Every structure is written in structure tokens, then in C-alpha cells.
Amino acid sequence: MEFIEIIGWVATAIILISFLFDGIKLRIINCIGAVLWLYYGYKLESSSILFLNAVLIGIHLIKIIKPKKKIDKQL
């Protein structure tokens, strides 16, 4: 098995494992998987994989940062 295939399988496993968690943990773990998928898409030169995972990373980061801003406002 080639190294890039291993990256793809590790990314898949991390994404699947992330769904065993709730809330912020799910987003952080899923974001790690999306970063690996982003690398996988880059190495395969797959624009659809690159686009999807770049958007997912952006959404996860917004959702991770947004609740912190709400908490700061309450203080």
C-alpha cells in the first residue's frame, strides 16, 4: 500500500471516530481528519476533495471559535 493510500485510510478512520463524540470534540477531531483529507486531495490533485475539505475546515474553525466569543460576551 502506498503512503498516500495510508493517509487516506487514516483520514477516513479519524472522521469516523469523530462521530463517536459530541460538540467541540467532534469538530476538533473531524477537523484533523479534514486536514489529512486535504493533504490526500492535494497529492492526488483532486480539486473536489481539496474544495470540500477546505470548506469543512473553515466551517469547523468558525464553529469552534464562535462559541468562545459568546462565552466572552457573557463575562
SSE order = HHH
According to DSSP, the number of beta strands is 0
**What does the radius of gyration come to?**
14 Å
Give the termini separation.
52 Å
Structural class: mainly alpha
Overall pLDDT score: 89
Shape: elongated
The amount of helix comes to over 70%
Total number of helices: 3
Summarize the biggest pleated sheet: none
Low-confidence stretches: none
- Range of strand content: under 5%
- How many domains? The number is 1
In short:
The chain has 75 residues and is mainly alpha-helical.
Overall description:
This protein has 75 residues and is mainly alpha-helical. The chain has one domain (3-74). Helices cover 88% and strands 0% of the residues. It has three helices and no strands. The chain is elongated.
Task: Summarize the SSE layout with pairings.
Blueprint lengths: L2 H16 L4 H22 L2 H28 L1
Helix pairs in contact: 1-2, 2-3
How would you describe this structure in keywords?
75 residues, mainly alpha, 88% helix
